[in-house]
Design brief:
The structure holds two protein chains of two kinds.
Chain A: H1 2-20, H2 26-64, H3 67-70, H4 83-114, H5 119-133, H6 136-150, H7 152-155, H8 160-184, H9 188-196, H10 201-230, H11 233-238, H12 253-258, H13 264-272, H14 286-320
Helix pairs in contact in A: 2-14, 4-8, 4-10, 4-13, 5-8, 6-8, 8-10, 9-10, 10-14, 13-14
Chain B: H1 14-17, H2 21-66, E1 80-82, E2 87-88, H3 90-122, H4 125-138, H5 143-163, H6 171-195, H7 199-207, H8 212-223, H9 225-241, H10 244-249, E3 256-257, H11 269-278, H12 288-321
Antiparallel strand pairs in B: 1-2, 1-3
Helix pairs in contact in B: 2-12, 3-6, 3-9, 4-6, 5-6, 6-9, 7-8, 9-12, 11-12
């Protein structure tokens, strides 16, 4: 075996040499190197970004330890913390799970399993693709007019409820598209088997198609939550607090949901604009705090993203084998 | 529940095969519910369009009643976007947006396309297995983080010494940062397009004796060109709509003189919107300033919608071909 392999290799080399006139393909190698350089430049820049932020954030966690995570917003970098931002972001994620997941998955399933090809269906599909491309700041306008101003009695105006609903709407197209894609990838034999034993369309969908498509749907929903957590522009329009935010004692949950709010990306935005003066006690600046807040946000968002991608790759492999 | 045969009648009737009415009813209900969810997307679009254009129209009619539509293009000696002073030179922010998105495409197109070609044509399967997820994870970094990065690193350490911008913030820094932000998107869409080119085309080209670089440039890229164009357009549309980087790094707070020099600080449409809304509780001047928010939003919506629909067409064209 080894002999034939070596013969084959050497003969290939002889053929190649005679075809190329013994010259190396310098141009081709340069081309490949340039391409690799593009890829590496992109990755290098992004790595620098992450490295820079993490390096600046480390002293914050050393000097402030958990105080940074449990304190409220404040005007001094010695005291300011991100607890209200974490709370706001978690509530927003909750709204995405409660509103965007069921509606988005249902719409995706409808488009693939129920919809008959026709004008209405293709209109809905076109509409969803376009919705996915609408800039996030435009969703902010929707939130401002409909939920902050229109439904003020219910949402409390510039509140985390308005923000949660708006971001749920913003990520819904992503969920619909990924759900539809993973449902489309389910082999039709599975459906035929379901119908063959007398299942209704819903029973077949519920017990055969959905379980098979579940990993793909889960991937899409995780990406959607990650997107919602990192989105800041619509929250600015809805009126998240960038400065100081008092949290009075004894608020009920409803009062807190309807009251003023902030979220992690908004804190990052607000602190980026702060004057860069070191605090008297810790010597930390708002720039350091911003880096630390970014680390907190990135940990949440990137873990969600990485988990989603790993999950998808794993199931793709299993299906192929 | 199993369909039961009625005693004394050994033959099956159609109703026996139909399943229990309970199950059928449930099937019907679910169908209606799922349809409702799908229709929701149309409701959302309708809401967006009605709110945007309704309020934008109020702004336009308000302008016509007071200072006239001529205010949208300032012809004065120092034109600019000063909404609090009732000066709405739309050209200022449109030019800002065009400069920023132009620069970001100059950054993202070569980087993203190069990375995509490498991943699809050159990388070994093992390398691809590692590089692709890394690129995808990087695509998930929130844009506000890029804004901070532009403000603290790109501005002072790269763009200022390289291009001699007067300050740390400028349209140029904003464009570069948004370019880096959309590079993973550009790479991922054009990689999809390149990979959907059937390998028979590559094999035929290799069989004729073409080098890999020749095959890539002369065969694969032309075959995938509409997908690559679509990737470009989607990147432009994303860059136009990007808000947080522009709000942090473009260097003007809510008002700006008109400028055509990318090294100057300026204002994009998105940054103008974000900053109009931040101060919307205490708007100085007439109510028109706040309502200009919707007019700019409607304009932004139309620009990105046009680009996206065009890009969708292009993507569809690749899909139909192969």
């Amino acid at each position: 075996m080894a002999v034939t392999a070596s013969i084959r290799e050497s003969s290939a080399a002889v053929v190649r040499a005679s075809l190329t006139g013994g010259k190396r393909d310098v141009k081709g190698m340069l081309f490949a190197a340039a391409l690799l350089l593009c890829l590496l430049t992109a990755m290098f820049t992004l790595t620098i970004l992450l490295w820079d932020v993490v390096a600046q954030a480390i002293p914050v966690f050393q000097k402030r330890s958990t105080g940074f995570l449990t304190n409220d917003l404040a005007s001094s970098p010695d005291k300011a913390g991100v607890s209200q931002g974490i709370w706001g972001s978690l509530v927003i994620a909750g709204f995405v799970v409660l509103l965007a997941f069921p509606v988005g998955i249902a719409a995706g399933v409808y488009l693939e399993e129920y919809a008959k090809p026709g004008r209405l269906t293709s209109f809905i599909q076109l509409n969803i693709r376009n919705l996915a491309g609408v800039p996030s700041v435009v969703y902010g306008i929707l939130g401002l007019v409909v939920f902050v101003q229109g439904l003020e009695r219910f949402t409390g105006g510039r509140s985390v409820i308005s923000a949660g609903i708006t971001l749920a709407i913003l990520v819904m197209p992503i969920i619909i598209i990924t759900t539809a894609e993973s449902v489309r990838a389910v082999p039709s034999g599975l459906r035929e088997a379901g119908y063959g034993v007398g299942g209704t369309r819903w029973e077949t969908t519920r017990h055969h198609v959905l379980p098979y498509a579940a990993p793909g749907i889960l991937t899409g929903t995780m990406l959607a939550v990650a997107r919602a957590l990192g989105e800041a522009a619509p929250l600015l329009l809805i009126g998240a607090i960038t400065g100081r935010l008092a949290s009075p004692e004894g608020q009920t949950v409803v009062e807190r949901l309807q009251g003023k709010f902030t979220a992690m990306p908004i804190i990052i935005y607000g602190w980026s604009n702060e004057v860069n003066k070191p605090g008297k006690i810790t010597g930390l600046t708002f720039e350091d705090l911003t880096s630390a807040a970014i680390v907190v946000l990135l940990v949440i968002v990137l873990v969600l993203n990485a988990a989603a991608i790993l999950l998808r790759n794993r199931f793709e492999k299993r299906r192929q084998s | 529940m199993q369909p039961t045969l009625s005693p004394g009648a050994p033959t099956l009737s159609v109703s026996d095969l139909r399943g229990s009415p309970k199950r059928l009813r449930r099937d019907k209900t679910m169908k209606v519910l799922l349809f409702g969810a799908a229709v929701m997307s149309i409701v959302i679009s309708a809401l967006i369009i009605v709110t945007l254009f309704g309020e934008a129209w109020q702004f336009v009619s308000g302008l016509m009643d007071t200072i006239g539509l001529g205010a949208l293009v300032d012809g004065g000696a120092a034109p600019g976007w000063y909404p609090r002073q009732d000066r709405f030179d739309i050209l200022t922010i449109v030019v800002g947006t065009l400069i920023v998105s132009g620069i970001s495409v100059l950054v993202a197109a070569p980087l993203g396309l190069g990375a995509a070609i490498y991943l699809s044509e050159y990388a070994s399967p093992r390398m691809r297995k590692w590089l692709k997820p890394v690129l995808e994870i990087l695509a998930g970094i929130p844009s506000v983080v890029f804004g901070f990065f532009a403000l603290r690193v790109l501005g002072p350490d790269l763009v200022k010494p390289l291009f001699g911008t007067p300050g740390n913030t400028s349209l140029l820094v904003t464009g570069v940062a948004i370019g880096i932000l959309v590079t993973p998107l550009m790479a991922s869409i054009s990689e999809d397009a390149l990979r959907s080119v059937p390998s028979a085309l590559r094999e035929a080209s290799t069989g004729l004796g073409a080098r890999r670089s020749t095959t890539t440039v002369k065969v694969v890229i032309p075959a995938a060109v509409s997908g690559i164009v679509a990737a470009l357009i989607i990147s432009v549309s994303r860059a136009i709509g990007e808000t947080m980087v522009a709000a942090l790094a473009s260097g003007r707070l809510g008002q700006s003189p008109r400028t055509f020099d990318p090294r100057d600080p300026g204002l994009t449409m998105t940054a103008a919107m974000a900053q109009l809304a931040v101060g919307s509780d205490q708007v100085v001047g007439s109510g028109l300033a706040f309502q200009s928010l919707f007019f700019v939003g409607a304009l932004l919506f139309l620009m990105t919608l046009g680009l996206n629909m065009f890009a969708n067409r292009m993507v569809g064209r690749v899909r139909n071909k192969y």
